[in-house]
Amino acid sequence: MRAGPAALLVGGSAYSLIAASTTPFTLPADVLTGLAIVGMAVLVIVRWPLRARPARPARPATGAHPYVPWLVVLVVFVAWELFDYLVHGSRADHPTFSSITDANDRFYILKALLFLGWMAGALVIVRQGSRRKAGRG
After folding, report:
1. Is residue 81 within 8 Å of 96, Cβ to Cβ?
2. Would you give per-residue pLDDT tens digits along the chain (137 residues)?
3. Are 105 and 114 in contact (CB under 8 A)?
4. Where are the alpha helices (H) located in the chain, listed in sequence order?
5. Which residues contact 109 (CB under 8 A, 6 or more apart)?
6. Burial classification of residue 87, based on how many CB atoms lie within 10 Å of its CB (0-12 exposed, 13-18 middle, 19 or more buried)
7. What is the CA radius of gyration of the chain?
8. Closest listed residue to residue 99, CA positions, set 121, 77, 78, 84
9. d(Cα 21, Cα 43) in Å, to the nearest integer?
10. Considering only CA atoms, which of 137, 132, 136, 121 is closest in space to residue 49?
């Protein structure tokens, strides 16, 4: 039985509202976050193919590997976080990603929306690698 988009939205929204009502780093918050992670891990095990065909990414005309831009984004992000964490007093002028999300977490609805977005992003990843999609093509 396949859950429709409306059921996923309603269920995900309800779960996000419950998770947003918890205090960060408490047992209820950790349990609700952990349950979402375990749920996505189970979906990955159930939906993803056991033996994926190796993908051969097309190389751009420059000959660079297609993952290089993502690696650059990751390095820039980590460098930004480390710089802002280590340089004393610069957090107000150049906030880290975690301090930006902490500022939004003070507002219940924004915290719920961030949690829902996190779960939706994970669901997109699970669906992109699903057996049905891998079997096509």
Report:
1. yes
2. 466 889 999 999 999 999 999 988 789 999 999 999 999 999 888 888 766 666 665 665 666 677 788 889 999 988 887 877 777 666 666 666 666 777 778 899 999 999 999 999 999 888 887 766 544 44
3. yes
4. 5-20, 27-47, 68-86, 97-105, 108-128, 131-135
5. 20
6. exposed
7. 19
8. 84
9. 25
10. 132
Nearest to 135 by CA among 41, 40, 51, 42: 51
Taken in order 47, 52, 53, 54, is the CA torsion positive or negative?
positive
The structure's pTM equals 0.66
The gap from C-alpha 9 to its chain's centroid, in whole angstroms, comes to 16
> Which residues does 43 contact at the CB level (< 8 Å), separation at least 6?
123, 126
- Rounded Cα distance, 85 and 102, in Å: 14
Q: Which residues of 37-54 are buried (b: 16+ CB within 10 A; e: fewer)?
A: eeebeebeeeeeeeeeee
Q: Can you read off the two tokens belonging to residue 66? A: 């297609």
